[in-house]
Specification:
Blueprint lengths: L1 H24 L17 E6 L20 E6 L15 E11 L3 E9 L10 E4 L4 E4 L19 E7 L7 H4 L5 E2 L10 E2 L8 E7 H5 L5 E7 L7 E3 L6 E3 L2 E5 L3 E5 L2 E2 L9 E2 H6 L3 E6 L5 E3 L4 E2 L9 E2 L6 E2 L7 E3 L10 E8 L2 E9 L17 E8 L7 E11 L1
Parallel strand pairs: 1-3, 1-27, 17-23
Antiparallel strand pairs: 2-3, 3-4, 4-25, 5-6, 7-10, 7-26, 8-9, 10-11, 11-12, 11-24, 13-23, 14-15, 16-18, 18-19, 19-20, 21-22, 24-25, 26-27
Length: 402
């Protein structure tokens, strides 16, 4: 009898414990840390952190807790001339780390880049034609070796918004890449294949807000618009082209710079706050010899010396120290366009950049939502002093360590 009573108590206790275990395992707020298989060549693991990194381009101690995904990127060969001069270029080392907390996701990206490119389409003076012109953002092919482009360094991530892009996990950025288009349509462009498909594009641009102004990544979106589906999220862009049209005697209407900072050397942009403060001067007239008259009645004669001219041979890429920037900048991107804050530092032949974004932004139409902590496939690209040509790594996966 004593034995039966003891056995009865043991059975009841077992049932109670089992029921409690089942109840505890079905709570809605429970997250099970199920180990995931990790592919070291494609998987970026984002770790939970209680110490957010300082977004300053310096590698904080907390990043030691994150594993590093390292790979190389290469510029593919496409039809047309849009990648000409860049095809086959390789970025030998790209390193990405990620972390997240209850509100934000953080990234640390490092990549090799032998040159810091911060002069985007600068204005120079041609003493033979007496005309002002802008350097090209693409290679010049009128001689060999070619004249290199004058542009900026860029970087991009592509993400599938609301799992809308068919076949994304097997192709990522290739799903919106279209080559072989007519030259009039740009030869190679990104746009999605159906009106319901949208891609979140994070486009860091060194000159346009990436190392100045608001220190931000331009938050963009790709849609089904042909031939170019790339557009910005709602908000105000950070830059304007520094150009205007004036009448040059003996020539007629010509494009010339709009603002200049007299006496400044080696500057890649003009802040609009410098315009407001009077540091940057409005160019109000140009004479037959290309001499500029400024708003304060002073003049700039680009025929004296070579400070405003190309220097060296055509293919050397040289320009004088006072060439005029090709753009002006606002203080920052605004609205959903400015969702991603960053800090990028170039040193010793490489870029180091930290950035952050909310796990879930208020723009549910144009931004990817990470708050579910589900795996997210993505594509990645580096633009090394390139307007369009980019070296790529497709089919990467962001995984959250819960």
């Amino acid at each position: 009898m004593k034995y039966l009573k003891s056995k009865y108590v043991w059975v009841i206790t077992t049932l109670v414990l089992a029921f409690g275990y089942v109840i505890s395992c079905t709570k809605d707020d429970q997250v099970l840390d199920t180990p995931q298989p990790i592919n070291s060549s494609t998987d970026l693991v984002s770790v939970k952190t209680t110490a957010a990194p300082t977004i300053d381009g310096t590698i904080d101690a907390m990043w030691a807790n994150s594993s590093t995904l390292e790979f190389s990127t290469a510029v593919p060969e496409v039809t047309g001339d849009v990648f000409r001069g860049y095809t086959g270029n390789i970025i030998p080392s790209v390193k990405i780390r990620s972390a997240y907390d209850d509100n934000n996701i953080y990234f640390l990206v490092e990549w090799a880049d032998p040159t810091q490119s911060l002069k985007r389409n600068p204005w120079y003076f041609d003493p033979v034609t007496k005309r002002w012109a802008q350097e090209s953002g693409t290679y010049g092919f009128t001689s060999s070796p070619y004249r290199p482009p004058f542009y900026e360094d860029k970087m991009a991530f592509l993400w599938n918004i609301n799992n809308s892009v068919s076949g994304w996990n097997n192709g990522t950025c290739y799903k919106s890449c279209h080559t072989g288009l007519p030259a009039a349509d740009g030869s190679s462009r990104h746009y999605t294949n159906f009106p319901t498909e949208k891609i979140d594009m994070w486009h860091w641009k060194s000159v346009r807000g990436g190392v100045n102004a608001g220190n931000q990544i331009h938050d963009q979106v790709q849609n089904n618009s042909y031939p170019n589906g790339r557009t910005s999220d709602p908000g105000v862009d950070v830059y304007q082209n520094n150009t205007q049209t004036l009448n040059q005697p003996g020539i007629g209407s010509v494009s010339v710079p709009k603002y200049i900072i007299p006496g400044r050397n080696d500057y890649g942009w003009i802040m609009n706050t410098e315009v407001t403060a009077g540091t940057a001067k409005l160019i109000t007239a140009i004479d037959a010899n290309g001499v500029l008259t400024l708003g304060d009645a002073t003049t700039i004669d680009p025929n004296v010396g070579t400070d405003y001219q190309r220097i060296g041979s055509y293919s050397s890429g040289g320009v004088g120290p006072k060439v005029i920037p090709g753009l002006t900048l606002n203080d920052s991107y605004t609205g959903s366009m400015g969702d991603i804050s960053c800090k990028a530092v170039w040193s010793g032949g490489s870029w180091t950049m930290e950035f952050k974004r909310a796990l879930k932004t208020s723009d549910t139409v144009n931004d990817i939502d990470f708050s579910s902590l589900a795996d997210q496939y993505f594509g990645f690209a580096i633009f090394e002093n390139a307007q369009i040509a980019h070296s790529i790594k497709a089919n990467l996966v962001l995984k959250f360590k819960k």
